[in-house]
Amino acid sequence: MPTLNKIFDKCGVALYQNESLDHYYQEPYQDEGDEIKVIGEPFETDKSKKIRKYDLYVEDRTFSNFLFFMDGSRRTYKIGDIVIEGKKIYPVVVAQIRAGCTERGSEKKLHSHQAIQRKNLLLLSDKVNTVDFKEIQQRITRTKVAQEMFLEVVEYRFEPEKHNILVNAAIAKANTMMHDMEIEILSNMVKSGVLDTDRMLVVDGPLQFLRQDTGKTEFADLFYNVIGVSKSFNPMLPTSSKSKRGGTQIGAELLKLEYGERTPVFLKENDRGRRFGVWYLRIRPKNKVSNPLEGIIKIEKMVLEDYYDSGIPTDVVDTISLSLLNEGSPTCYGRDERWASHLYPVYLTETLIKSTFESDLVFINNFKRDFR
């Protein structure tokens, strides 16, 4: 039976198959690698440095400016190792990646806004020489098994300054391709004009994937009606230039937040010079969570150039924050260990997307089939 090993053998690369599921790898914070820019005042029009509090007994608790919710998900598996030039070993990783968006209709029920995008990947180190890689890629992708799976063979690159182990480099590549799928969905929504100030989109996680955009200002302006919400975040981010020398970290400030309170807006810049407003909001009472940092979400909004100096209008920040407080009810308590920081429509979107994954056993067994 021509297994995957034999295809590699024909290309002069030794593959030793073994299996390991991705839940053995610790998930990083959603804002891993993030950095808040140190500034002297809040990055919003109200320059008060005090915690902002909302009166939850007065505000309309049914109001929300959000109608769309987008998420991406992946499952990765190490299926073996290859030996290159008889000297070094590199992992071979396969992945299922998915991305999708839901819309809340007039009946208040969520439904899929577009078809869920799906890809299956086989990831090889870029240390495989170009000729061998292309031959492996061609031999695999023209087999019946690969065509049935819609399998793509792609390269990953290990960068020591970014990845502590080789497998994480492959997972990062899968994540990048997942974000590309999110960008495609988002671009289609922007082009079709479905987004507006009262029909905004929540992206699960930070807006880090926008770093991959084309750099066109007119394109960036269209992301005004999109925010990113992170359930997990790095509590050790500094809040001032003194933090790296023993000053205050953001986690210490967040412990002060009570239910319905938010921080002032911080400034974040990406490597393209784009500016983002970042703030934190407590959406659960402290006496309802088991950890003092549970029930807090991190919110990120791209800033138009008109507000690069003054920051985001505070009334916009307040409207977004109140909408997100309202999206916190009902909860997915008992269905997800992250329930305290999970917005219910995002949870439903994530559940829908994950329902399209093949089971781990079925997916892994595909790579033991007859590759002809």
Describe the structure.
With 372 residues, the chain is of the alpha+beta class. It is built from nine helices and 13 strands. It has helices at 4-10, 130-141, 144-149, 166-192, 217-221, 250-254, 314-327, 344-354, 360-365, and strands at residues 14-21, 52-53, 66-84, 88-104, 110-112, 117-125, 151-156, 200-204, 226-230, 261-262, 266-269, 275-282, 296-302. Strands 1, 3, 4, 5, 6, 7, 8, 9, 11, 12 and 13 form an eleven-stranded mixed beta sheet that branches. It has a two-stranded antiparallel sheet with strand order 2-10. It is elongated, with a radius of gyration of 23 Å. The termini are close together. The mean pLDDT is 85.
**Shape field:** elongated
Record field, number of beta strands: 13
Total discrete domains: 2
Helix content: 25-40%
Mean pLDDT across all amino acids: 85
In angstroms, what is the radius of gyration?
23 Å
Helix-strand sequence = HEEEEEEHHEHEHEHEEEEHHH
User: Low-confidence spans: pLDDT under 50, at least 5 residues?
Assistant: none
Tell me the major beta sheet. 11 strands, mixed
SSE class: alpha+beta
Given the structure, what is the number of helices? 9
Distance between the termini: 9 Å
Q: Note the beta-strand portion.
A: 25-35%
Quaternary status? single chain
